[in-house]
Amino acid sequence: MGFIYMKKLISHDELKSAYPLPEKYALVKKERDKQIKDVLAGASDKFLVIIGPCSADNEDAVCDYVSRLARVQEKVADRIVIIPRIFTNKPRTTGEGYKGIAHQPDPEGEPDLQEGLIAMRKMHLRSITETGLTAADEMLYLENWPYVEDLLSYVVVGARSVENQPYRFAISGMDCPAGMKNPTSGDFSVMLNSCSAAQVSHTFLYRGYEVRTTGNPLVHCILRGAINKHGQYVPNYHYEDLVRLLDMYKKRKLANPAVIVDANHANSNKLYYEQPRIVREVLYSRSANRDIAQLVKGVMIESYIEPGSQNIHERVYGKSITDACLGWKESERLIYTIAEHV
Fold this sequence. Notes:
38% of the residues lie in helices and 15% in strands. By secondary structure, the protein is an alpha/beta fold. The chain has one domain: Aldolase class I (TIM Barrel, Alpha-Beta Barrel). It is globular. It starts with 11 loop residues before the first helix and ends with a helix.
């Protein structure tokens, strides 16, 4: 019964010192941050494409994948800002199974948080220095933030965390755009309440300190679909859903209204190959309504080198061991399609 304290982990200062971000790439990140913030603040009409594996399970494969994105980014830089999904934590509905590289650096091994923190930072660091692209990660474990705060350009709060006040408080102190997913119930009010809470200042207990935050004006919504009382998936990316969210935004005094549409999860009925169709519909909705075009700042796509998913023991290079993902060929084609229509 109770907690068993196993070992004291490396501090975030120690880890940053061991694996520092070179000054050259700190400047690259500063420029990337500005590009992304300008899109969300309405100062740029570029479109965000947040794309990558469901979970970043293998450093070599993930960095290979991001290097491919970097080559595409060069070709669409006038219209699109690509943000790689390097999600080092994997939420589990029942708590069982692989929890991400930050928890299990070896997917078939035992949990090792010390090595997981190192693996998490090394992967993000390698991706930046090899490609020049700074990434998004999900803040599933708030304790992880100080270990990568100098590396991330975007954070996500998941559907099961968005109602949790500590997440809202912590996001209010991050100098980083943050997307709040709608809860699994699909309630837009909960999502918007989370945005409201994270955009203002708070005083609270954090890492053993009493802290005060300034508020994060670039907190915004992510639509990922819902699950109804019968356990059925209910999409919320359609034109009518976007109009409803726009109307709800107008009734609130929120800074920088914005939404990212997640093309997978409940929006696709977890059918990864439906993502291109869903993205095309979102692009059509933007073309049909100027207000929607101003609200919808980007899309989120689950994508990897190989399409689909695999058993954790199969070890096919670049294939998801969690949710099924779009393959690289289809993903590359989709990015070019987006560039043609934004």
